[in-house]
Each structure stands twice: as C-alpha cells, then as structure tokens.
Amino acid sequence: MGEDPVPGVSFGYQRTEILAAGLNGLILLGLSVWITYSAIRRFGDAPEIEGKLVLVAGAVGLVVNIIGLFLLRAGSTESLNVRGAYLEVLGDALGSVAVLVSATVILLTDWYAADAVASLVIAAMILPRAVSLLREVAEVLLESTPRDVDLVELRAHIVETPGVKDVHDLHVWTITSGMPVMSAHVVVDDDITEMDAAHAVLDRLRGCLSEHFDVEHSTFQIEPAGHQDSEHHVHH
Q1: Cβ atoms 145, 151 nearer than 8 A
Q2: Residues 21 and 133 placed together within one structural domain of the fold
Q3: Residue pLDDT, tens place only, 16-47
Q4: 3-class secondary-structure state, position 220
Q5: Total count of domains within the chain
Q6: Which residues contact 111 (CB under 8 A, 6 or more apart)?
Q7: Burial class (CB in 10 A: 0-12, 13-18, 19+), 197
Q8: Helices 51-76 & 80-109 angle (0-180, nearest 10)
Q9: Which of 141, 161, 189 is the last residue of a domain?
Q10: Is pTM, for the whole model, over 0.85?
C-alpha cells in the first residue's frame, strides 16, 4: 500500500522548491535593477577607485565563483531551485569578469567611469537569466505542459497501445523539477471487460509513458465506449 498523503497537501511539499526558485528569480531581478540604478548615479560623479585592489578582489571572486559553478552545474539541469543558485553564482562570476576589465581600464587610463559601465554590463547579463528563471517557475505554477512533452505524440502513443480505442481529458503538468504527472480518460476495446484485462492495459500504458516520455506518475480512468457521452465536463 502507498503512503497516506499529508492532509491538505496531497503531493506533500514538493513545490517548496519551485517557490524558492521563484524567490531566487525575484532577487536576481531586483539585483539587476539596483545595479543599474547605482551605475547610472555614478556616471555623474564617478568616485576614484584603487585599481590594483579591485583587480585582486575581482580575480579572487572569479576563482571562487568558477568553483561554485562547477559544483552546481550538474544539478542546475535537474532542479529549478539549484538552477536559481547556479544563476546567482553565474551572475557573480560575470560580475567578477566585468570588475577585472574595469579595473584594468582604470589602471591604464584613470577612466573611473569604467566601473559604472562594468556595472551596467553585469545588470544586462543578469536580467535575461532572472526573467528566464521566473518564466519557468510560472510555467510550473500555472501547470503548463512540460516543454519536453509533445501532447500530440503522447496522445498517439496512448491510442496505439493494444486494447485502447481512444483517449480524452488528457492533461500533463509538473509538480516540481523532475516530477511530471499525467491524467487521462482511456476508452478501451469492447472485449476489455475483466479486471485482469484492464490491468494489462494499464501496465502497457504506464510502461509506454515511462519509456518514451519519462512520466512516472500517471493516473488513468478506464472507460467503455460511449461513456464519454455522459461526461459533460470533458476537455477535448
């Protein structure tokens, strides 16, 4: 028997990760806006900066961030929360590169506004990554179809399964990173009247989904032909 769901949250707290990733995205977005504002203010009155000290600080920061990127890279493709952390470290790494460039310019030319220019470059690099992360978070929260799932292809695979005549009310969404789920009403052949035969159809359907679409959690409602006519809520 499976584990009983937590009262009030039948999927547990799986989406805590998505909320954390959304918070990361908002922080990145706010950071980009603040850096831009601060840089524009410095254009009018660029403070004198010790180029050598900034150069050393930028170099140390870059090394630390590269190590962080290496550690987070694998997990960033599997978890939105880890990806948010990865993007934060990436933003810091890009910032370190911009700092190194601006420090070099200041040492060679004494053009202190280079620091403000570097800040604008950093903000420009962070912004699209923050927006991309927030868009992915929104897709999960809105229960959009996962990007790597083709509903037309999925429907075709289900209908081609032996014992299946048709499918309707087909929905695929994501609970959290790496956890796509699916539900569907499956119309079976007229000779599927015994529980053993229906069980065999379910096994074939779940095997197909797991193999071709990496959907481990699926729910099927087995129906005889004609049952759909009595379902006024059906979404085709």
Answers
A1: yes
A2: yes
A3: 888 888 888 898 899 889 888 888 887 766 66
A4: strand
A5: 2
A6: 105
A7: middle
A8: 160
A9: 141
A10: no
